[in-house]
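User: I'm putting together notes for a lab meeting next week and I want to include a structural view of one of the chains we've been expressing. I don't have a solved structure, so I'd like a prediction I can at least talk through. The sequence is below, exactly as it appears in our construct file.
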Amino acid sequence: MTDLVRLAGALIFVLALIGLVAWLMRRFGPNIRLGRPGRLGLVESIALDSRRRLVLIRRDGVEHLLMVGGAGGDLVIEAGINAAAPPDLRAPVAGQRGRAEPSFAAHLPGEEA
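Assistant: Thanks for the context. Below is the predicted structure for the 113-residue chain, given as structure tokens.
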């Protein structure tokens, strides 16, 4: 009888540990870093459709915009974005007419701007 009680106690203890680890992973995510912060991080991600996704990553203080999951492979949309000074998207630049770069649609495979 004592063996059965010990077995039940051990099972409850192991299940509680699994629950604690699952709660910690959900709470803090899989990117728990012990010690110094890492050089690479995910800043933002957004789904374009069922296959493609835009991902903004930061590496050593520089951000890179990538499109991943397309049929033509992964694509670097913009590299070397200064992470310290994000652009102000609310106010247009005075005197600026049109776009300096091609539209986003020009970067998509099979799409023409």
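A couple of points you could mention at the meeting. The chain has two domains: 1-32, 38-86+101-113. Residues 38-86+101-113 form one domain.

User: Perfect, that's what I needed.
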